[in-house]
Protein backbone atom coordinates (compact mmCIF):
# COMPACT_ATOMS: atom_id res chain seq x y z
CA UNK A 1 0.00 0.00 0.00
CA UNK A 2 1.27 3.45 -0.89
CA UNK A 3 0.17 5.53 2.12
CA UNK A 4 0.80 8.85 0.34
CA UNK A 5 -1.50 7.83 -2.48
CA UNK A 6 -4.16 6.68 0.01
CA UNK A 7 -3.94 9.91 2.02
CA UNK A 8 -4.07 12.10 -1.09
CA UNK A 9 -7.22 10.29 -2.23
CA UNK A 10 -8.71 10.52 1.27
CA UNK A 11 -7.81 14.22 1.48
CA UNK A 12 -9.63 14.96 -1.73
CA UNK A 13 -12.71 13.26 -0.29
CA UNK A 14 -12.34 14.98 3.10
CA UNK A 15 -11.77 18.46 1.67
CA UNK A 16 -15.46 19.03 1.03
CA UNK A 17 -16.26 18.02 4.61
CA UNK A 18 -13.97 20.46 6.40
CA UNK A 19 -15.96 22.26 9.05
CA UNK A 20 -18.72 19.64 9.13
CA UNK A 21 -17.39 16.20 10.08
CA UNK A 22 -13.84 17.00 11.12
CA UNK A 23 -13.00 19.12 14.17
CA UNK A 24 -11.57 22.58 13.63
CA UNK A 25 -7.86 22.79 12.97
CA UNK A 26 -5.28 25.47 13.66
CA UNK A 27 -6.19 29.05 12.84
CA UNK A 28 -4.95 30.23 9.48
CA UNK A 29 -4.86 26.82 7.82
CA UNK A 30 -7.68 27.56 5.37
CA UNK A 31 -5.80 30.62 4.11
CA UNK A 32 -3.09 28.51 2.47
CA UNK A 33 -5.24 25.93 0.63
CA UNK A 34 -3.78 24.58 -2.60
CA UNK A 35 -5.81 24.13 -5.81
CA UNK A 36 -7.66 20.83 -6.28
CA UNK A 37 -6.03 20.03 -9.63
CA UNK A 38 -2.79 18.74 -8.05
CA UNK A 39 -4.72 16.08 -6.13
CA UNK A 40 -7.22 14.69 -8.64
CA UNK A 41 -5.36 11.59 -9.86
CA UNK A 42 -7.36 8.77 -8.21
CA UNK A 43 -10.26 8.09 -5.87
CA UNK A 44 -11.11 5.67 -3.07
CA UNK A 45 -14.57 4.32 -2.39
CA UNK A 46 -16.69 6.43 -0.04
CA UNK A 47 -16.75 3.59 2.48
CA UNK A 48 -12.95 3.39 2.55
CA UNK A 49 -12.72 7.18 2.96
CA UNK A 50 -15.11 7.15 5.92
CA UNK A 51 -13.15 4.34 7.57
CA UNK A 52 -9.82 6.10 7.01
CA UNK A 53 -11.37 9.27 8.41
CA UNK A 54 -12.31 7.38 11.57
CA UNK A 55 -8.68 6.32 11.99
CA UNK A 56 -7.48 9.89 11.45
CA UNK A 57 -9.92 11.12 14.12
CA UNK A 58 -8.47 8.51 16.50
CA UNK A 59 -5.05 10.02 15.80
CA UNK A 60 -6.39 13.41 16.96
CA UNK A 61 -7.20 11.87 20.36
CA UNK A 62 -3.61 10.67 20.73
CA UNK A 63 -1.44 13.17 18.86
CA UNK A 64 -3.05 16.50 18.01
CA UNK A 65 0.01 17.87 16.17
CA UNK A 66 0.17 14.84 13.88
CA UNK A 67 -3.54 15.19 13.19
CA UNK A 68 -3.09 18.89 12.35
CA UNK A 69 -0.25 18.06 9.97
CA UNK A 70 -2.23 15.35 8.16
CA UNK A 71 -5.30 17.56 7.83
CA UNK A 72 -3.26 20.51 6.60
CA UNK A 73 -1.27 18.54 4.07
CA UNK A 74 -3.89 16.14 2.70
CA UNK A 75 -7.35 17.61 3.37
CA UNK A 76 -6.52 21.32 3.05
CA UNK A 77 -3.63 20.78 0.59
CA UNK A 78 -1.32 23.32 2.19
CA UNK A 79 2.32 23.44 1.10
CA UNK A 80 4.84 21.97 3.55
CA UNK A 81 6.67 25.26 4.14
CA UNK A 82 3.38 27.02 4.93
CA UNK A 83 2.37 24.31 7.41
CA UNK A 84 5.67 24.79 9.24
CA UNK A 85 5.03 28.54 9.45
CA UNK A 86 1.39 28.20 10.55
CA UNK A 87 2.16 25.60 13.22
CA UNK A 88 5.42 27.34 14.16
CA UNK A 89 7.52 24.19 13.91
CA UNK A 90 10.83 23.42 12.22
CA UNK A 91 11.03 21.50 8.95
CA UNK A 92 12.75 18.65 10.79
CA UNK A 93 9.92 18.45 13.34
CA UNK A 94 7.34 18.69 10.56
CA UNK A 95 8.77 15.83 8.50
CA UNK A 96 9.42 13.70 11.58
CA UNK A 97 5.83 14.12 12.82
CA UNK A 98 4.44 13.62 9.29
CA UNK A 99 6.33 10.32 8.97
CA UNK A 100 5.02 9.16 12.35
CA UNK A 101 1.46 10.18 11.44
CA UNK A 102 1.61 8.32 8.13
CA UNK A 103 3.02 5.26 9.86
CA UNK A 104 0.23 5.35 12.44
CA UNK A 105 -2.47 5.65 9.76
CA UNK A 106 -0.93 2.88 7.67
CA UNK A 107 -0.90 0.59 10.70
CA UNK A 108 -4.45 1.60 11.63
CA UNK A 109 -5.67 0.85 8.10
CA UNK A 110 -4.00 -2.57 8.21
CA UNK A 111 -5.27 -3.45 11.68
CA UNK A 112 -8.81 -2.28 10.88
CA UNK A 113 -8.63 -4.34 7.67
CA UNK A 114 -9.86 -1.45 5.55
CA UNK A 115 -10.15 -2.58 1.93
CA UNK A 116 -8.23 -0.10 -0.22
CA UNK A 117 -9.35 -0.13 -3.86
CA UNK A 118 -8.78 2.82 -6.15
CA UNK A 119 -11.49 3.71 -8.64
Summarize the entry for a quick read:
Belongs to the phage antitermination Q type 1 family. The chain contains five helices and no strands.
What does this structure look like?
By secondary structure, the protein is an all-alpha fold. It has helices spanning 3-15, 46-62, 64-75, 80-87, 91-111. The longest helix is centred in the last third of the chain and has 21 residues, at 91-111. The model is unreliable at 30-40 (pLDDT under 50).
Number of domains: 1
Distance between the termini: 15 Å
Q: What shape does the CA trace take?
A: globular
Order of H and E elements? HHHHH
Question: Which structural class should the secondary elements be placed in?
Answer: mainly alpha
Total helical elements: 5
Q: Radius of gyration in whole Å, from Cα?
A: 13 Å
Strand content: under 5%
Low-confidence stretches: 30-40
Helix content: 55-70%
Biggest β-sheet: count, sense, barrel?
A: none
For this entry, give a set of tags.
mainly alpha; globular; single chain; 119 residues
Give the helix/strand layout.
Layout (H helix, E strand, L loop, with lengths): L2 H13 L30 H17 L1 H12 L4 H8 L3 H21 L8
Helix pairs in contact: 1-2, 1-3, 2-3, 2-5, 3-5
Amino acid sequence: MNIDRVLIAWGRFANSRIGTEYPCIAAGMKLAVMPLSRYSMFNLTDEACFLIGEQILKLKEKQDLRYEILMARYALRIEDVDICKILNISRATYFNELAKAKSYIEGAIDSAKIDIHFL
